[in-house]
Structure formats: C-alpha cells, structure tokens
User: Which sequence fits this backbone?
C-alpha cells in the first residue's frame, strides 16, 4: 500500500474588525503611503475583545470541514499551528476539538511561527503516509495583535489576525499526487532578530489588545530587526524553493501557483522572480490581511481556492519564512475537483 495525503477541504476566517493604514496612522507616526510602498499592506483584521485564537481556528475549521463534506466525527486528529495560543496550556488544538464537538482523538499545537502551517503540512503528511491517521484537520491560527507593541511603528503596522484550515485525507495510490513532499529548515543562530517574549498580558481574556499601551521596554511584544530579517528571508526563500524543486525532480516551469507566506510584497516578488513566475500566478493577500503568521499560507490558499483559480492537476508551491529563523516549502499536486 502506498499512502498519499490529499487536501480535501479548505477554509478561512478573518475577524470582522478592519484596521486600515489610515486609522493606524492616527495611532503611531506612520502613513498609508509608507506602509503600502514598503510592505504592500493596506489593511489588517483585528480579533474582537471577546474572541480567542481558538475561535478563529474553529470558524476556519468548520468551513474546511463543510468544504470537504465531512463532520468532526470523520476526523482522526487536529493540529493547530499557532504562535498566539489561547493559553500556555492546554493546547489551542484541544480547545478547538472541544468547540467543534470532537472527542477522544489526538489534538496538539505546533510552533514554528510564520512557518507553522508549512511545518504542520510536512508533519501531518508524514503521519498520514505512515498510516497513523486517515483524516487530519490542520489549522494555522493567530491573534498577532495581542503580541504587538502598539507604540512601535516598525512592527505594529505589519501584522494581522486570522485563521486558515485544511482537511487532509489518506489515499492509496502509486503516482506522486496530493502532498508531493516538503523541505524544512531552522537556524537558531538568528533567533534574536525576530522574537516575542512570553507570557503577554494581551493574551488575557476580556482585554482589548488595541487598548493596551505596552511599554516597548517591557516584556511583551514582537521585536524585529526588519532590515536583517528581510535580507535573510529573500536569500533563504530563494534557496528553499530551488531545493524543494530539486528534491522532487520538478522544473520551475511546471509550477502553476506560488502560495507564499504573506509578510511583505517585496519578499513575495523576489521569490516569484527567482522562479521566473509571473506575479499573477502568485496568491496575494498581504494587502488585505497583512502578516497573519501561521494563518498566512492557508489563508492565501483559501483565497485563490474560493476565487475558483485552482484546477485539478495543478502544481502548487507553498513556502514560508519565520522567526527562529525557521523556513520551509511544500509541493502539492492539487487533486480537489
Ligand atoms: N512608518 C514610517 N516610517 C517607518 C515605519 C513606519 N511604520 N517603520 C519604520 N520607519 C522608518 C524607520 O524608522 C527608518 O527611519 P530612518 O531612516 O529615519 O531611521 C525608515 O523608516 C526606514 O526603515 P527601514 O527599517 O530601513 O525600512 P525598510 O525599507 O527595511 O522596511 C520593513 C522596513 C519592516 C517593512 C522591512 O524591513 C521588512 O519587511 N522586513 C521583513 C519583515 C518580515 O518579513 N518579518 C516577518 C518575517 S516572518
């Protein structure tokens, strides 16, 4: 028996509240023009006061289950990739399982920051191929607004909240189909360039993260050396897309869709250029969602899927870069009708 994992359902959820660049520029010394020119971001969604990351994850998961024509009773495991869990423990995945009405199957979180979904897809694919699970719900969900220093213009303009989800299913087939394979990397020597300390007061229930005026010297928020992150991200993403293509014997010209982590339009464009891909073959949501960390890749996938752009048999390249630094890529042969 040769087991392969296939994406059979896709979903996404964005909280209602939209924070525009114009509104942000009344909060910190920035402008719509600066943010758009340097990052491509126009707006981001912000989690409501009474919502948690698990609520965003649950909504995205419901949509993915519905899309797959399945119920929670058909699922064997839930994996949630998140940097902003509801609590230190239990896992956000266990809370999502409860909210979906699931019982007595494994659920756990993984933490690879913005690469969480790409890491999760590699992990779940391995477990499905190994015969451990038949159907797995994989979610990337974040409330990044809760770990922002809303006085630091160099970081708070970059992030947003949301969740994306897929249902993965095992199929017995010989040819390379569904999730073709992945490459993952991490180099902890870069850990100080992009980090957030924990725990964070904004993670407490009932606290509106936008009301928090966190001292940037305090132990609370994302800190980043943007320039250096940018430089390493462009280099490593260029390398990793070449590596994943080489590993699985795929030519650049065979890629139909690039589904990149949405951090900065200039990083996305550099990767598309390296692949000699036209920008209109790239999923683009950074303008609407900003950087939603682990939710970014599944939300971008959900975006082009809902627009009806994906066709059965097309080859998708997913990639992400994150604090750690942790980065990676997945190759997917789209097999959904
Ligand atoms: N509004 C206006 N000015 C801002 C600003 C803002 N929101 N943020 C920073 N600036 C200022 C800086 O203070 C600096 O001013 P100075 O020249 O007077 O010192 C100037 O803009 C240029 O800053 P710099 O950091 O060199 O800009 P940049 O072109 O590198 O763009 C980032 C900054 C953060 C957009 C860019 O470095 C980036 O996207 N990095 C990667 C981030 C990333 O991908 N992180 C997540 C990885 S998962």
Assistant:
């Amino acid at each position: 028996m040769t087991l392969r994992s296939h994406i059979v359902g896709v979903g996404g959820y964005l909280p209602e509240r939209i924070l525009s660049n114009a509104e942000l520029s009344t909060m910190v010394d920035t402008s719509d023009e600066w943010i758009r020119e340097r990052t491509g971001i126009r707006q981001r969604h912000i989690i409501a006061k009474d919502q948690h990351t698990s609520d965003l994850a649950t909504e995205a998961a419901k949509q993915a289950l519905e899309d797959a024509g399945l119920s929670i009773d058909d699922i064997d495991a839930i994996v949630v990739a998140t940097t902003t869990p509801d609590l230190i423990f239990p896992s956000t995945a266990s809370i999502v399982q409860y909210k979906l009405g699931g019982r007595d199957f494994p659920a756990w979180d993984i933490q690879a920051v913005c690469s969480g979904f790409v890491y999760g897809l590699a992990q779940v694919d391995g477990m499905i191929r190994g015969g451990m699970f038949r159907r797995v719900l994989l979610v990337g969900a974040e409330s990044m607004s809760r770990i922002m220093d809303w006085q630091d213009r160099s970081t708070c303009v970059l992030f947003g909240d949301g969740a994306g989800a897929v249902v993965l299913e095992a199929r017995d087939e010989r040819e390379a189909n569904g999730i073709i394979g992945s490459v993952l990397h991490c180099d902890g020597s870069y850990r100080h360039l992009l980090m957030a300390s924990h725990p964070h007061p904004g993670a407490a229930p009932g606290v509106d993260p936008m009301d928090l005026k966190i001292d940037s010297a305090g132990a609370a928020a994302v800190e980043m050396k943007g320039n250096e992150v940018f430089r390493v991200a462009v280099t490593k993403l260029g390398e990793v897309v070449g590596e994943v293509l080489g590993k699985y014997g795929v030519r650049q010209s065979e890629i139909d869709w690039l589904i990149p982590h949405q951090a900065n339009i200039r990083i996305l464009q550099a990767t598309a250029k390296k692949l000699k891909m036209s920008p209109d073959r790239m999923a683009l949501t950074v303008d609407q969602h900003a950087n939603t960390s682990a939710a970014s890749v599944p939300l971008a996938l959900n975006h082009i899927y809902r627009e009806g752009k994906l066709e059965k048999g097309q080859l998708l390249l997913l990639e992400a870069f994150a604090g750690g630094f942790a980065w990676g890529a997945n190759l997917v042969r789209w097999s959904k009708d």
Remarks:
- Residues 161 and 295 are 8 Å apart (CA to CA).
- The chain has a mean pLDDT of 93.
